[in-house]
Amino acid sequence: MKIKHSEFVISNTDFNKCPKADKPEYAFIGRSNVGKSSLINMLMGRKQLAKVSGRPGKTQLINHFIVNNEWYLVDLPGYGWAKVSKTDKSKWAKMTKDYLENRENLACVFVLIDSRHEPQKIDLEFISYLGENRLPFAMIFTKTDKQSPNKSQSNMAKFRKALAKDWENIPPCFLTSSAHKTGRDEVLDFIEEINGE
Ligand code: GTP
Ligand code: MG
């Protein structure tokens, strides 16, 4: 898919205030600092569409972007940030759960996973939650430029193996690097395929 246009629309804490649910929507979620905002910029071919930061917890709202006037892309705050208070954690959980469980045009949730690590409980738990709620998802393994291709492949294989315990058919997985701009066509073509369904 060619990206002809991408534009920020609105930030919300309340899913009820999100744009009218009249276009397919793709949400990006994962641990704080996993590279969600960087990936969104890489996919859109923009430097600073979504705000990037070395400090975890940068994205704190539900951020809507419109792409090619055809679909919505959503940058969500990261989970598992140790430094936030309990109150903030439950605020995050409520906002995100309300959004995920009620947004009727949600076509796919992209779960971002750091390709440098072996399977982490928090990511596996989040995927179980998506499964329990029958939410369609795919996985994106980020920051592959940080180690050898073999290491990224092996961590992805371990993750798939961990999922195989619960899942008969494991959803698609993508390897990406926002720094090296790899995996872009694969993710965009996948979105195009779903949009065409
Ligand atoms: P929160 O909004 O805080 O949850 O973080 P996020 O998941 O949006 O991460 P963000 O895109 O802000 O990136 C976090 C840090 O990782 C930044 O310092 C980025 O420059 C860096 N980063 C993101 N993606 C990549 C990548 O593919 N390769 C490398 N080397 N660094 C990356
Ligand atoms: Mg972010």
Automatic annotation (TrEMBL):
Molecular-function annotations in GO: GTP binding; metal ion binding
Record-annotated EngB-type G domain positions: 22-197
Pfam families (UniProt xref): MMR_HSR1
InterPro entries: G_ENGB_dom, GTP-bd, GTP-bd_ribosome_bio_YsxC, P-loop_NTPase
Domain of life where this protein originates: Bacteria
Keyword annotations from UniProtKB, A to Z: Cell cycle, Cell division, GTP-binding, Magnesium, Metal-binding, Nucleotide-binding, Septation
Record-linked Gene3D superfamilies: P-loop containing nucleotide triphosphate hydrolases
GO BP terms, alphabetized: division septum assembly
Keyword Iron-sulfur: no
Co-factor(s): Mg(2+)
SUPFAM superfamilies: P-loop containing nucleoside triphosphate hydrolases
Cytoplasm is among the record's keywords: no
Function: Necessary for normal cell division and for the maintenance of normal septation.
PANTHER family per the UniProt record, alphabetical: ENGB-TYPE G DOMAIN-CONTAINING PROTEIN (PTHR11649:SF13), MSS1/TRME-RELATED GTP-BINDING PROTEIN (PTHR11649)
Similarity field: Belongs to the TRAFAC class TrmE-Era-EngA-EngB-Septin-like GTPase superfamily. EngB GTPase family.
Protein's name according to its UniProt entry: Probable GTP-binding protein EngB
Organism: Fulvitalea axinellae
